[in-house]
Amino acid sequence: MAALKYAGMDDTDSEDELPPGWEERSTKDGWVYYANHEEMKTQWEHPKTGKKKRCAGDLPYGWEQEIDEEGQIIYVDHINKRSTYFDPRQAFTVEDVVIKPKRYDGNTAALDILQGRDLSDKVVLITGGNSGIGFETARSLALHGAHVIMACRNLSRANKAVGAIQQEWHKARVEAMMCDLASLRSVREFADSFKSRNLPLHILVCNAAVCTQPWSLTEDGLESTFQICHLGHFLLVQCLQDVLRRSAPARVVVVSSESHRFTDLRDSAKQHYWSMLAYNRAKLCNILFSNELHRRLSPYGVTSNAVHPGNMMYTSIHRSWWLMTFLFTLFSVFLRPQQQGAATTVYCALAPELEGLGGMYFNNCFRCLPSAQAQDQSSAASLWQLSEQLLTERSA
């Protein structure tokens, strides 16, 4: 039977070019073998180089192994509706089969990190996923097969974001659910609704935030920035930690900011309130929370890392302060794309080299040291205790 053709996939360099009448195929577990059609025989070694090869990694999203009518393995690209005997993964010689982690930086986009990944077995929950880097995180994961749930306070905007992703890829499994972090009642109702569906939860991204808000109290009597950025997420994780543990290995990614370095945990009185200081303090809480969460849940297969999405990036969280909006508009030519802003979140959520690792802080896909107070274990334990106390007082 004539070999199936797939445009662009049979190009080889001079060293690996096969003699006439030879064909490269692979077994189900990725080992490459060579078929000599003239002599009707197969062998493991390349007929020119004498080396053995193996395909490494997962099949790209949309690809599937199947068996043809003659019992041969073929690879079907369901997205482009094409088939080939050639394994779409890159083949490595046996001595090179151990894949080194790729290096990423501030110019890396989230979709670059996910290239070739099939996430169809993952369920992901993202707070505030309807705009900004949260949307790009949700979009990137959904376009690679993950079942993505956006937990948002504005369902109208969230459903528009869902529609935008599904318009890009009609099979994307993405949906929106109501969750207002400014309401502890809403967070509990969301958690109950999520748990009633009996879904696993492999990745939880604590992304939602507000910045430059004027002084205000939530319905629970707490300062808004603190509750939305920290305490609402703390309660959400508390409510879902049993699901995370059952889904292990699972990961939590907490979106913080480099601005955590310019504050401490001392609470300011209302007359001394400054919105940026409140935001910085909430971002410090994010790192302390992530570290303590990892310490408590890592024995159960749940890890947590905090991330800084990147500098000079405009998102809707700055909309409450006209000066910040003006400055971002003025310097818009220097702003980083939000796809790059989502990269560090995606990296911490899925990088194979971070399996089982946590309690760290990442910037531009690199681990870096946060401030001294963000590393302080006693501060993390005290914040955890305070957060539990605040929730207990408001549930009574």
TrEMBL record:
SMART domains the record matches: WW (SM00456)
Region feature (Disordered): 1-24
Compartments reported by the entry: Cytoplasm; Golgi apparatus; Lysosome; Mitochondrion
Position of the signal peptide: none
InterPro entries (UniProt xref): NAD(P)-bd_dom_sf, SDR_fam, WW_dom, WW_dom_sf
Chief location category: cytoplasm
Protein name: WW domain-containing oxidoreductase
Organism: Tetraodon nigroviridis
Native organism taxonomy: Eukaryota, Metazoa, Chordata, Craniata, Vertebrata
